[in-house]
Structure formats: structure tokens, C-alpha cells
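Reviewer comment 2.1 asked that we show a complete input and output for one of the modelled complexes. We chose the flavin-adenine dinucleotide case, as it is the one discussed in the main text.
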Amino acid sequence: MTATDRPLVVGTGIAGLWTAWRLASEGHRVLLVTKATLQDSNTAWAQGGIAVAMDAGDSPALHAADTIAASDGLADPTAVEVLVTEGPARVRELLELGAAFDRGPDGELRFGLEAAHSRPRILHAEGDRTGAALVEALSRVVLADRRIEVLERTQVRRLVRHRERVVGAILLDEGGEPFAVSAPAVVLATGGVGQLFEVTTNPPVATGDGWALAHAVGAELSHLEFLQFHPTALRIAGVNPAPLLTEALRGKGAWLVDARGERFMLALDPRGELAPRDVVARAVAIRAFRGDVWLDARHLADVEAAFPGVTALLASHGLSLARDLIPVAPAMHYAMGGIRTDLAGRSTVAGLYAVGECAHTGVHGANRLASNSLLEGLVFADRAGREIVADLAEIPRPPASLSPAATDLDAGADQLPEALALLARMRSILTREAGVVRTEPGLAEAEIALADLLARAPSGAWRTADQLRVAALVARAARGRRESRGGHRRADFPNPKPRRAE
Ligand SMILES: Cc1cc2nc3c(=O)[nH]c(=O)nc-3n(C[C@H](O)[C@H](O)[C@H](O)COP(=O)(O)OP(=O)(O)OC[C@H]3O[C@@H](n4cnc5c(N)ncnc54)[C@H](O)[C@@H]3O)c2cc1C
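Response of the prediction step:
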């Protein structure tokens, strides 16, 4: 059993790595844990880039305006202001720490333009390896810092709350043995929830653990209904996560076709395949349930030469853009809501902080502006780190006597066929009823069905039970919002309600 008076940081995506580094840079010792390896996170998969207003002609005010416009009326302007004004300083620090963003022939940083950004402001690293390159750079920094102890293959099983505070956690080591850690502050940086859906771009670690952990100790979660789906991911049974098929393919003229080989987008929107992301995602989702939607690029000249990355990816599955129809489906991509925090990462329970994708800071509102999430991870992780440093002197010493309970043992119940079957059922229910398009009866049924699945979870299958609980929270949140806004589409309430204070 281990006891510690170090802050505990959970997760090694951009948000967890940065929090740990910030705490250490302020002279504090940190325990940083991650349930798989340093390479397993949504961050490591980020292909696009990081948005930051640093180019000539750009400004934080312009970045804020784009962020608020994308949010469909729900972004918190104060949080957005923090994001865009503090972002440049964090990116400069990233550069100092060794992040190698791509530069032009003149040696200056190269800023790319992305949909819904009014200025070029997206930094990339090694082209489409931005996330992996960031993880490599920050992992090097963290591993080299003697004040940071890193434990891979170490999973937080549950948080420990003592009176009004979170005072530590029960963790499982690589062999599944539970141990207790007391900590003056616990920072959840556990990332996304994509694995609760049938098709997702998120890696296997993205099972919504942070939401389950925070909810179990009474922390408030908010805006869980706002989920972003990518319209065209490769749909092949057993390929998880689902690789994205870039929108540039449709930009080049690839079609979306149904089982009869007919283009269906033209009947829905005059822009056809180039209609906005959410319009395409809805059309694709409806057909994907029947398993009959494909991307057809066979008529495009030299398409394989134009898309070498996609071509190589498809070749590994025996497919060719020039020869085959490519099966696609919308993929759960990003969660805008999460553990509700203030601007310093504090959750509604003392001692518990949340940063990155698992948190709801208010910067994204109902819809995330592309490439703002890595920046959010940096900016708010930094604030949480500084806040914890400022608070440490005031924080009561945690009780040193935490210990695991018999129920914390991992006897492998989550691997039982009946537990795996429950999760498969959960993914199907959530995808169908709380996916791209939702309705009142569908969500009501989903809530009942998910409660039934939870009641049937095998004893000791706590990972399964946690995912079922999070799925139920998503369905409940989606049912509670009787309007369509941003990433939340209700077929029975197709319009946004007049904006009210939230
Ligand atoms: C394919 C893809 C492309 C993307 N492209 C972009 C992009 O171009 N630009 C952009 O801004 N965003 C992009 N995103 C989104 C962005 O990558 C994420 O929002 C961001 O990286 C989240 O960072 P994070 O640190 O909050 O979480 P993550 O990077 O997901 O890290 C979570 C960490 O928590 C650990 N963890 C989880 N549960 C536990 C537990 N119980 N115990 C211990 N450890 C745990 C995980 O193992 C992992 O290390 C993309 C996402 C995907 C999937």
C-alpha cells in the first residue's frame, strides 16, 4: 500500500501530462498514473492540430468570435476569453519544452486554415502526427523530471471522499492488485467517452472513467448531451477505433451512395456531399443503421496518388479507393460536456479537479470549434496546476489511513462473456438512441434498457457497471434537452429554444 502527500494526476493525454509538468515546475512532487501506456490516449491520435491565435493578422478576439460562433450559443464567453488569450503563452512554453511544430521555408511557424476558422491558426507537428508528437515531447519532459513519478498500467478504480473532500483514490496496479493513495488534490484528466458507442475515433482507453469516478463522489456533470460525431469513418467490423476518412475526399468530389449506388445527399441539401458536417452525419447515420452507406471515389482521376495516407490505410484492409466502394459510418469523436469545473479546474467537490476532454469548462458550448480541444487541455491544465499549488498550503492533510476494500479486487469479471455482451448491447442502444439523431421515446426506452443492463451486470464487473452508468447519464441528459443545438439533435424538437441562462 502506498500513501502520498503528492497531488495525484490521472491520465497522460495532453491535459494530464501538462498538469503534472506544471505542478513539478512549481517545485511539487506529483504522482501521474495512466491505465495503459503513455502512448494510449485521444491526444496521441489527434491528427489535425492545435488552434492558437499567433499568426500575423490573427488575434485572440477573432479566435474567440469563431469559437463562440461554433458553440451554437452556449459557450461561456469568460472561459473562451481565457482559452484564446492564454493559449499563445502556453504554446510558446510547449515550443520551449521541445514540441516541434511544422515551419515554413522561412523558419517561421506555419499556420493552417480549417473549417469554421476565419484565419489560418492551426499548428501541426509532422503533418498529421500532431497529437503523437505532442505526447512524445511531453512524455520526455515528464519522464526526465525526478519530481514526477509515472505509473503506467495503473487504473483508478474509485475516488475516496472523506466528509466534504476527495482525499485520494484506490488504484489497481498492473497485476490487478488494489492499493490506496491519499492525495491533497486529485486531478482527473481521463479524456473521452467514445468507446460507449459502436463506431468511434477514440482509442480503447476512452471509456468515460472520469465521468463515472466524479459522479460516484457527487461531483456535478453537465452538458453530457453535446457529443460531436464525425460523418465519415471507415466502417469495418472489429476495426476499433474507426479511422477517419478525411473530408477532403468529399471536397475532391467523392460521393456518398446507398445500397443502390445512388447519391442521397443531393436530395437533402443542394451542397450535396459538401453540406455541413452535422447534416452529412445525420444522413449517413440513418443509412448506417441499415449498413448501407459507402463513399464512392472510383470516378476521381488519380485519387490514390492524391490521398496516399488514406490509400495505405485502406490497403491494410484490402480496400482501394480506385476500385472499391468504401463502407462508412458516423463515428463518436468528441465530448463537449463533462465534469463541471470553474476556470481553475475545480469540480464541485473539494479536492477534485478535472481538465481536458473529461471536463466541462464551458469553452465549447454545444459544439467544439475544430482544434480547440488540445488548446483547452493545455490552458486549463495549466490553470488547475497553478491553482493547486496556490491551494496546497491551505489543504488539510489527507487521512493517511486509506485502504482498499474487498470489493476493489479485480477478479476479471469484466471479461466474462455476459459482461462483454452487456457492453455490446449498451453500445448498440446508445448509438441508435443517443447518437446522431435522438427522440423522446427512443431516449426513454434507452434509459429503461440501460437500467436493466446495469441490474444484470455480473458481480465484480465494475468497469462494465461504470460504463453503463455513464451511458445512462448521457441518455438522461439528451432526454432532458428538448431542443436541437450544436452536437445535440432531436428529431422531435428540431429547432433551438430561445437562449436562456445556464
Ligand atoms: C482521431 C482523433 C483526432 C483528433 N484530432 C484533434 C485535433 O486535430 N485537434 C484537437 O484539438 N483535438 C483533436 N482531437 C480531440 C483531442 O485529441 C482530445 O480532445 C484531447 O486529446 C483530449 O486530451 P485529454 O488529455 O483530455 O485526454 P486523453 O488524451 O484522451 O487522455 C486520457 C488519459 O486518461 C487515461 N485514463 C482514462 N481513464 C483512466 C483511469 N480510470 N485510470 C487511469 N488512467 C485513465 C487514459 O489512458 C489516457 O492516458 C482528436 C481526437 C481523436 C480521437
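The two ends are 43 Å apart (CA to CA). We note this here for comparison with the apo prediction described in Section 3.2.
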